[in-house]
């Protein structure tokens, strides 16, 4: 899993940047390419979107933005990575959190590709998550991502990760989770 990349911006496109890390150029989709300067070094938290014929990286300068992006993609049915990155393009993290906490879906309506029904669902489903849900630690996040890439359902994975012993290695936790998921 790629979680963090540090490198120099080599190119900027409309919605992505090329980040050179040890002579390898990674195309990373970002919320706003204007935030980045060619030739400058950045450290980005990276969300991997792995599909059958496509592999995309989405980058964030701040961990808080990365965590909220991940939460939106993983928790809100019907909101994929492209729509989620558009949310961050049209709204900053404080606006997103404020709208969710105040149960105000209207600011989300300015996001391209997001309708009223989905905007309401984002506010409703994330309101409790921002207050109550503790983010997964790095080890469990790695296990979660691995299980997603194996095709298990997001909600079932979350349920299993709540009940298994998280003190082992990533490999042991993953094996235990697979056992529970295949027996469930």
Short description:
The chain is α+β, with helices and mostly antiparallel strands and 184 residues long. 46% of the residues lie in helices and 20% in strands. The model has no long low-confidence stretch (mean pLDDT 89).
Provide an overview of this structure.
The chain has 184 residues and is of the alpha+beta class. The chain folds into three domains: 4-60, Nucleic acid-binding proteins (OB fold (Dihydrolipoamide Acetyltransferase, E2P), Beta Barrel); 63-132, Orthogonal Bundle (DNA polymerase, domain 1), CATH 1.10.150.20; 138-183, Helicase, Ruva Protein, domain 3 (Orthogonal Bundle), CATH 1.10.8. Helix content is 46%, strand content 20%. It has helices spanning 63-75, 81-90, 93-101, 116-132, 138-149, 154-163, 170-183; strands spanning 4-12, 16-21, 24-29, 41-50, 55-60. It has a five-stranded mixed β-barrel with strand order 1-2-3-5-4. The longest helix is centred in the last third of the chain and has 17 residues, at 116-132. It is globular and about 50 Å long. The two termini are 26 Å apart. The relative contact order is 0.10. The mean pLDDT is 89.
């Amino acid at each position: 899993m790629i979680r963090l990349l540090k490198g120099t911006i080599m190119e900027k496109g409309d919605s992505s940047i090329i980040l050179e890390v040890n002579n390898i150029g990674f195309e990373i989709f970002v919320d706003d390419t204007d935030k980045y300067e060619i030739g400058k070094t950045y450290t980005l938290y990276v969300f991997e979107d792995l599909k059958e014929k496509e592999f995309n990286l989405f980058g964030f300068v701040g961990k808080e933005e990365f965590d909220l992006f991940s939460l939106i993609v993983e928790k809100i049915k019907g909101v994929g990575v492209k729509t989620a990155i558009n949310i961050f393009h049209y709204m900053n993290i404080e606006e997103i959190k404020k709208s969710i906490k105040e149960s105000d879906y209207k600011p989300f309506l300015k996001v391209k590709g997001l309708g009223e029904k989905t905007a309401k669902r984002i506010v409703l489903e994330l309101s409790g998550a921002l207050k109550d849900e503790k983010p997964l630690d790095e080890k469990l996040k790695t296990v979660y991502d691995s299980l997603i890439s194996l095709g298990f359902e997001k909600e079932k994975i979350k349920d299993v990760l709540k009940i298994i012993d998280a003190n082992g290695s990533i490999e042991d936790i993953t094996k235990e989770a697979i056992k529970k998921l295949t027996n469930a």
